[in-house]
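Re: duplicated header lines in exported structure tokens

Our pipeline writes sequence and tokens for each protein into one text file. With two proteins the header for the second block appears twice in some exports. Here is an export where it did not happen, for reference. First protein block:
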Amino acid sequence: MRVAIAGAGAVGRSIAAELIDGRHQVMLIEREADQFEPHAVEQADWVLGDACEVSILEESGIEQCDVVIAATGDDKANLVVSLLAKTEFAVRRVVARVNNPANEWLFNDAWGVDVAVSTPRMLAAMVEEAVSVGDLVRLMTFRQSNANLVELTLPAETPLAGKPVSELTLPRDAALVTILRGDRVIIPQPEDPLEPGDELLFVATADVEPEIRTALGY
């Protein structure tokens, strides 16, 4: 994929490096001259300019990108970049960084955001996951579809131990997408057995999350 990242600070550079390692084409757009350091991520294309300006986005060829990531430290800028990318340049996928959790409600499809990533929320979710085996933890919200990525770790005494995935009766708007078992990532098949300690990742709408707990015996 071709990915444009607005903001070449520590976060933007880290994302760029990861994507380049995954063999994606990356463009970094940075407005601050002191942050404009092409040698820091040499494999990326660098653009010096304000990603909140239509002219800069046009010159950078952002309409050719499959994904735009608004990764600046300013929520207002991230919203503007998201809106322009989606409405003016019809970018298929827009991901935005949420710096202040109080602003999270703004990061929705009305502002062109497909996926909002809130670092404070994700860190809190990781803490909850670490201390609350058996509880459903919301990791991420996909604004465009009104769905969430949620996780539940099966406790040692789970009644599902040894039972196949096919015996899970999940609600209509929920799907088990991955099982994390130790260092393994398992794409669940109907015959795969569940084990204590499995981390189950679901994509589901918020209103059916209680039904997922019920289906897992809670």
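Second protein block, exported in the same file:
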Amino acid sequence: MIDHADDLASVQAATERLLTAVAALDNAAVTQSSRLPGWTRGHVLAHLARNADALVNVLEGRPMYVSGEARDADIERDAPRPLDAHLADLRESGERFRAAGAAPADPSRTVELRNGVTDRAERVPFRRWIEVELHHVDLGIGYELEDLPADFTEREIDFLAARFAGHWDVPSTALATVDGRTWTTGGGADGGPVAVEGTAADLLGWLAGRRDGAALTVKGGDLPSLPPL
């Protein structure tokens, strides 16, 4: 069951954790490489701020981005800014998202994201929560997948398992955590069923493209290659 208000509160808490962690950096650290290929930490921070505004657009019925080129140009423009500018932008854009998310509206309405993807408006706060949590990890500043809230990790595994369900490149795959939680995904490719087991953090890392799956136990075949998100 989606709790729109609770998800908005979770986004705010995640944003505050991010702001506290980033505030401990300096200008030099912002220019250093993140864990995302080709992006500095400044690129990650710029993307997070612009994503907040993009999701405001979604909630208010406008296109998420003017174009893919404009999205990329905005990130490149904002990435080299000093730390204080990034912090202010993250705070202000986060507040704009919070206000848009809390505004009275039909939560069941359909909204459009990038590349023609649609979803219910009530799921947009969780999508923002994903952005804040995973990109906090991508900064490489001491916040790891193991540090994510347990309820977030389980919901994100749910989300990604559903995303890859039936995918033509992924064989039938059974996912399990070491404490017994299970999911199924894939099923569109030949082969399988493949059983993949590990910690929740390692499963999430593999599904989200943040880990190579080397820590997972695989039975019934090779670890499936997942398509990019």
